[in-house]
C-alpha cells in the first residue's frame, strides 16, 4: 500500500487569512450582549501590601479558596453590614 502526501490546497491560506481578519471575541459574545447576563467584569486595583495580606490569609487556610471567591465573600459581608443600618 502506497502512502501519499496530503493534497495541496492553494486557497487554504486565503481562508485562514479571512478568518483571522474577521476577528471576534475568544469567549463568544461580550458580557454586555450576552443573554441572561449574571456578572460584570471590573478592574480592581489593590496596593501590593494589601494583596500580600489577602494572599497570606488564603495560604494559611486549611481548605484552599481562590482569591476571587474570598474577595466576593468580603464584599458580601461588607454589604450585609452596611445594609443593616
List keywords for this structure.
85 residues; mainly alpha; elongated
Tell how many strands the DSSP assignment holds.
0
Please give the alpha-carbon distance between the first and last residues.
83 Å
Number of helices: 3
Oligomer kind: single chain
Overall pLDDT? 82
Structural class: mainly alpha
Shape: elongated
The topology string of helices and strands comes to HHH
| Main sheet characteristics | none
Which spans have pLDDT < 50 for at least 5 consecutive residues? Answer: none
Q: Share of helix among residues? A: 40-55%
CA-based gyration radius: 24 Å
Strand content: under 5%
Notes on the structure:
This protein is 48% helix and 0% strand. With 85 residues, the protein is mostly helical. The termini are far apart.
What's the layout of helices and strands?
Elements: H1 12-22, H2 48-60, H3 67-83
Short description:
With 85 residues, the chain is mainly α.
Amino acid at each position: 500500500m502506497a502512502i501519499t502526501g496530503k493534497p495541496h490546497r492553494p486557497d487554504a491560506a486565503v481562508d485562514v487569512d479571512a478568518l483571522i481578519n474577521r476577528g471576534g471575541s475568544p469567549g463568544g459574545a461580550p458580557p454586555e450582549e450576552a443573554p441572561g447576563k449574571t456578572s460584570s467584569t471590573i478592574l480592581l486595583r489593590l496596593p501590593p501590601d494589601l494583596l500580600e495580606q489577602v494572599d497570606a490569609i488564603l495560604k494559611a487556610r486549611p481548605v484552599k479558596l481562590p482569591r476571587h471567591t474570598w474577595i466576593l465573600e468580603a464584599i458580601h459581608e461588607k454589604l450585609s453590614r452596611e445594609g443593616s443600618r
